[in-house]
Write a structure and sequence with these properties.
single chain; about 120 residues; alpha/beta; Rossmann fold; five-stranded parallel beta sheet; 5 strands; globular; disordered C terminus
């Protein structure tokens, strides 16, 4: 269906997202931090980016700002734990199209991905 780039430093979260999204017939690419995500984004040009907020090397907020600057039409789904809700609000203010608070359900993730790939803008999960 669509190419999706996941950027998250937590291997377990990446595996979970890949399993869910592959199960929904998406092609998934993975990066372990923001800098690697930017590099991979330039090669792949995915239809959607899903990124964690708190990561080493390049924080998610910085990554979102850079992606939004270079590819403003690419939807970005920001994800982070419930103790980082202020970061999720900042992410949507700085360019993320939507945000999901961890933990989220498979249905919530797939609904957000469906909305974003369908063109919904400035929604939050």
């Amino acid at each position: 269906m669509a190419e999706i780039l996941i950027i998250d430093d937590e291997a377990q979260m990446r595996r979970l997202l890949v399993r869910i999204l592959n199960g929904a017939s998406h092609t998934v690419h993975e990066a372990t931090n923001g800098q690697k995500g930017i590099e991979l984004f330039g090669r792949v040009r995915p239809a959607l980016v899903i990124t964690d907020i708190v990561m080493p090397d390049m924080e998610g907020i910085e990554l979102i700002r850079e992606l939004h600057r270079t590819a403003p039409t690419t939807p970005i789904l920001a994800i982070s734990g419930s103790h980082h809700t202020v970061y999720l609000r900042a992410a949507t203010a700085l360019g993320a199209t939507a945000a999901l608070e961890k933990p989220f359900s498979t249905d919530d993730l797939l609904a957000a991905v469906g909305r974003l790939l369908g063109g919904a803008v400035n929604t939050s999960g």
